[in-house]
Amino acid sequence: MQLHWQFFFGALISLVTMTNPLSKIPMFISLTQNMSEPRRQHQAIRASWIAFLIMTVCLIAGNVILSVFGISYGALRVAGGIVIGLLGYRMLYHLQDPGMAPKAAGTRNRNDYAFFPLAMPAIAGPGTIAVVIGLSTEIVEKPTLTGKAVTFALTLAAIAVSSLVMWMTLRSSTMISERLGRSGQEVMARLMGFVLICVGIQFIGSGVRTFIAGS
After folding, report:
1. What mean pLDDT value characterizes the chain?
2. What's the angle, vertex CA 68, arms to CA 198 and CA 64, rounded to 5?
3. Is the CB of residue 177 less than 8 Å from the CB of residue 185?
4. Is residue 4 within 8 Å of 154, Cβ to Cβ?
5. Does the record carry Cell membrane as a key word (predicted)?
6. Looking at the domain assignment, is residue 9 inside a domain?
7. Rounded Cα distance, 163 and 169, in Å
8. Quick check: is 16 in a domain?
9. What's the predicted TM-score (pTM) here?
10. Number of domains forming the structure of the chain
11. pLDDT digits (tens, 9 = 90+) for 104-115
């Protein structure tokens, strides 16, 4: 049970760090600045809900996708670790905000940004999907059916909690932005970038161990 809860908190920290709610505040404020407050709240809850559904689908179908393309669990973890580590490096050195997707043409006249670009790719982007699929491979490798069921439930709970954190951050985006200021947001972004690098290295190490065990 202790190992299961360690898995839950590890998954939760990985997901919250990868989605990086604070980094989505500038994008959310920019996209919704001309909306009424009820409309902004609606966009926040829809974006978080859609991101939750995307991550849940990846958790369920992740192993199917791997088998279709003939990708081993070790390869997925190493590749995902590299992607996550690079995103963390960019965040740490402020080269580019991985959560800030370029605006598509014509977005100025739109009044719904919940799916694109908020839910995807800002929240449930490539790095987040890599984390979720990586977690799904660890679920499959559990030796017992009970262990798989419990681990799946805990991972789903971690996805739900991370989506809830995202929603709470977006709905309070104006207040948080005023409290933190630009320097505070940069400090948090760099701190989360360092954590992402650690998560990426952990994924790579797990992938290498899987390769060695399978050889």
Report:
1. 84
2. 65
3. yes
4. yes
5. yes
6. no
7. 10
8. no
9. 0.79
10. 1
11. 434 445 688 999
